[in-house]
Amino acid sequence: MIELAVYNREGKEIESVQVDEKAFGGRVRYPLLKQAIVMYHANKRVGTAATKSRGMIEGSTRKLYKQKGTGNARMGSVRTNLRKGGGVAFAKYARDFGKDMPKKQRQMARNSAILVKLKSQDVVIINDLSFSGPKTKEFAAILRNLKIDRSCLVTIPQLDLNVYKSARNIPRIQVLPLADLNAGDICKRHKVLFTKAALLSLINEGSQSSQ
Fold first, then answer.
1. Which of 48, 121, 125, 168 is deepest in the core (most CB within 10 A)?
2. Can you give the pTM of this predicted structure?
3. 71 and 170 assigned to the same domain
C-alpha cells in the first residue's frame, strides 16, 4: 500500500488516502510502457513532407532525342530527374506514421506509468480544483502552494473549461480529463497532480478490472 497526502488549495495536508498497487497492475510493465511511449511519439509525427516524382511533373513522356549518334549524353523525357524542372528521384510522399495498441494494453501502460510516478513520489493529490471562471493567477498560486515548480500534468475527472483556461497560459502545465489520460503524457511531465475524485475513480476502475 502507498499512502498519499491530500492537500487543499493552500498546500496544507488535510487527509490521506491509501493506494493499493494492485489497482494499477501491481507492477510496472516496462516493455508495454515503452511500446505506448513509442506509439505516443509516432502519433505526434505529421508526415506531410512531399516532393514531386517524375510521374507528377507535367510534360511529354517522349524521348527527347535518339539514344545514339548525337554526341550528347543519353537522355530520356523532360520529366527525368537529371534535368532542371524534372521530378525528384526517390521523391518523398505524404505518409501516416501512426501506430495503435489495443485498448486493454493502453490502459495497462497508463497504469504502469502512474505506478512509476507513485513509487517515485511524483504524484500530488488536491481535494478540489474548481473555478468560477478562468483564474490563471489563482491556479498559479495553487501550484506554488503545492510546491510544483516544474512540468506537471493536471488530471481532472471530466473536462472543465474553467480549469483548462486557467492553466493554458502557465508554461509546462497540461490539463487532461481522466478519459484522455495516457502513458505518453504522464511520462512527459515531471509531476502528476490528481484531484481526489479523479484518483479515486482510477482506483475503483483498477479494483474492478482486477477482480
1. 125
2. 0.80
3. no
